[in-house]
Design brief:
Blueprint lengths: L5 H11 L3 E8 L12 E8 L16 H12 L7 E5 L2 E13 L6 H15 L17 H9 L4 E14 L5 E5 H8 L12 E5 L4 E4 L23 E2 L2 E2 L6
Parallel strand pairs: 2-3, 4-7, 4-8
Antiparallel strand pairs: 1-2, 4-5, 5-6, 9-10
Length: about 240
């Protein structure tokens, strides 16, 4: 009846609390610092979700009552000198921006909505088809591009980029653009989460333009006219939507 290593905490919590779908234990860590802090234990928990539709735009979270119950349970299994925190994962958002050419039979409005939904499913941590729920996992630009390009109703994809919305421990929001990442770092523009306990989520709406020419075009850095209130428009570090203030 004693938890010693991270594996112990994770398995005991999953056994005791059926509503927890995934748990990650980070020794020597706190949610307010990336530095090594001996004696601290950060436990990140996520509820069981049956469908990505429950999670698009808003990440499912456990209530404070559940977090306190988990904290009390593990405190009784650990050293009295341990400082334990039980938290929901930090949420970060990804928005895909691209221009597509549809197959001839798919040239109507419903396929824009279908593509938006399919991208959300691919980026959702709760779907089998794409990225699974792994805290701290990168989203690779080439993977997302390849997924869209290989959809049966897509003929061509160009001007592809992704926006990355993050919130640090102080509540300050930032907007990143893979166009800038690629120029500055000479890499593929992959999106890496801010913290090891972060979870990348798709926004509810992706920016999809429809074209007719099969012509490669480089993506452009997103300007203020391309940002959207309720999703990606940030002023003074606060994102203007119902998810965060």
């Amino acid at each position: 009846s004693r938890a010693v290593i991270a594996w112990d905490y994770e398995r005991l919590i999953l056994e005791e609390f059926p509503l927890v779908g995934k748990v990650k234990c980070l020794p020597n860590c706190t949610q307010f610092s990336l530095r090594n802090v001996p004696g601290n234990l950060l436990i990140v928990v996520t509820p069981t979700v049956s469908s990505h539709l429950e999670a698009v735009g808003n990440a499912p979270r456990l209530s404070a009552t559940h977090l306190n119950a988990i904290h009390e349970y593990v405190s009784n299994l650990s050293s009295p000198f341990s400082k334990i925190e039980v938290i929901n994962p930090s949420t970060e958002w990804v928005q895909v921006r691209c221009r597509v050419v549809f197959e001839d039979y798919a040239r109507n409005g419903k396929y824009i909505e279908k593509l938006n939904s399919d991208i959300g499913r691919y980026l959702s941590p709760w779907e089998e088809i794409g990225y699974r729920l792994v805290y701290g996992q990168k989203v690779k630009q080439e993977d997302v591009y390849s997924y869209i390009y290989n959809l049966e109703y897509i003929k061509y994809v160009t001007e592809f980029s992704m926006l990355h919305i993050t919130c640090d421990a102080t509540g300050f929001y930032r907007l990143g653009d893979t166009v800038r990442y690629g120029d500055a770092n000479r890499n593929t523009g992959d999106i890496a989460p801010l913290y090891p306990w972060s979870m990348l989520m798709p926004t509810s709406h992706h920016n999809i333009d429809v074209g007719t020419e099969i012509l490669p075009r480089d993506p452009k850095l997103t300007g203020i006219r391309k940002l959207e209130i309720g999703s990606t428009f940030i002023i003074n570090g606060s994102i203007l939507d119902g998810q965060a203030k």
